Amino acid sequence: MAVVTSKEMFKKAYEGGYAIGAFNVNNMEIIQGITEAAKEVNAPIILQVSAGARKYANHTYLMKLIEAAVIETGLPICVHLDHGDSFELCKSCIDGGFSSVMFDGSHYSFEDNIKFTKQVVEYAHDRGVVVEGELGRLAGIEDAVNVSAADASYTRPEEVEEFVARTGVDSLAIAIGTSHGAFKFKPGQKPQLRFDILEEVGKRLPGFPIVLHGASSVIPEYVKMINENGGAMPDAIGIPEDMLRRAAKMAVCKINIDSDLRLVMTATIRKYLSEHPDHFDPRQYLKPARENLKELVKHKIINVLGCDGKAQ
Ligand code: G3H
Ligand code: 13P
Ligand code: ZN
After folding, report:
1. Ligand 3 centroid to residue 118 C-alpha, Å
2. Catalytic residue at 85?
3. How far is the CA of 140 from the centre of ligand 3 (A)?
4. How many distinct helices (H) and strands (E) make up the chain?
5. Which residue's CA is the nearest one to ligand 1's atom 7?
6. Model confidence, pTM
7. Where are the domains of the chain?
8. What is the pLDDT of residues 160-219, one digit of tens each?
9. Active-site residue (options: 82, 85, 104, 258)
10. How far apart are the first and last CA of the chain?
11. What CA–CA distances, in Å, run from 216 to 19, 123, 209, 308?
């Protein structure tokens, strides 16, 4: 099996009231941990690569590692560009074998977002690649771009039909109160998402797959483990898992998770090295990190996304 698009995955997810996990990858251990988890619970999976990850690991290395995962697991795996910010970047990923790209034009005017997204869609569709667009702007940090809460904006449901019709996108990321990174809410603040916006978007775009970015739960156990082993992370609050489960039962078909993977890896490595201060073979600490990441992804698939058993 080769890499696949998310088309079939989203169709089944929409109908089945579950979501597909889109996990960010940038090295072998992360790719192995995610895909081994998916294999064990027979789940379809999206591996996504940011511009920063592609710069760090190199396109060909990542593509070959993902192809290895397809061979090893036999699973349907979609390879997706996360937050593409230019036509050239999207084109390069499409030409290099990605089956899906996101064009993130959320910081442009409505008209420019449509214009640039449509250009990517035309190039992608001619080559059998699917495209995710974005309307509304999430707060938080992505690729060293820090969007303040003041600059963030919720998606306006009255714009979604026109955006989808004029661009031809295959899925749409919306902003309902999630944000990128580990610090999604202020200490003491109660996490809240605008389910009313999601519901309205779902009504206006029946059957159409919606994407939720910034969906890490920032599992306290791992923040604690980091801080107990020499780290100094301030209070970090993520999206409660029951809210993600609720979104997955609605129109949300793709849930993006990166920060939780970073936390579990860092926490495990910190703990390992404080317990074994004389060890210096990377395999010794990367092995438990990969194992814990795998367990975390299994937990997400079964308890949050609900896509276990859905790979065909
Ligand atoms: O949405 C952003 C992802 O977490 C990727 O982060 O750009 O630092 O690789 P990155
Ligand atoms: P988190 O930072 O919440 O993991 O979000 C990741 C994401 O949205 C990648 O596009
Ligand atoms: Zn994102």
Report:
1. 20
2. no
3. 9
4. 12, 11
5. 143
6. 0.97
7. 7-305
8. 999 999 999 999 999 999 999 999 998 889 999 999 999 999 999 999 999 999 999 999
9. 82
10. 11
11. 14, 31, 19, 19
Ligand number with the minimum distance to the CA of 184:
2
Kindly state the percentage of the chain with pLDDT values over 90: 92
The backbone torsions φ and ψ at residue 309, rounded to the nearest 5 degrees and listed phi first, read 80, 5
Closest residue by CA, ligand 2 atom 3? 214
Q: Which two tokens stand for residue 170?
A: 């295959």
Q: Is the CB of 143 under 6 A from ligand 1?
A: yes
- Each residue's pLDDT tens digit, 95-147: 999 999 999 999 999 999 999 999 999 999 999 999 999 999 987 776 656 77
* CA 104–ligand 1 middle distance (angstroms): 13
Distances in whole angstroms, Cα of residue 157 to Cα of each of 58, 160, 199: 37, 6, 9
Q: Using alpha carbons only, what angle is made at residue 165 by residues 118 and 143, rounded to the nearest 5 degrees?
A: 45
CATH match of 7-305 with 3.20.20.70: yes
Tell me whether residue 241 is exposed, middle or buried, using C-beta atoms within 10 angstroms of its C-beta: 0 to 12, 13 to 18, 19 or more.
Answer: middle
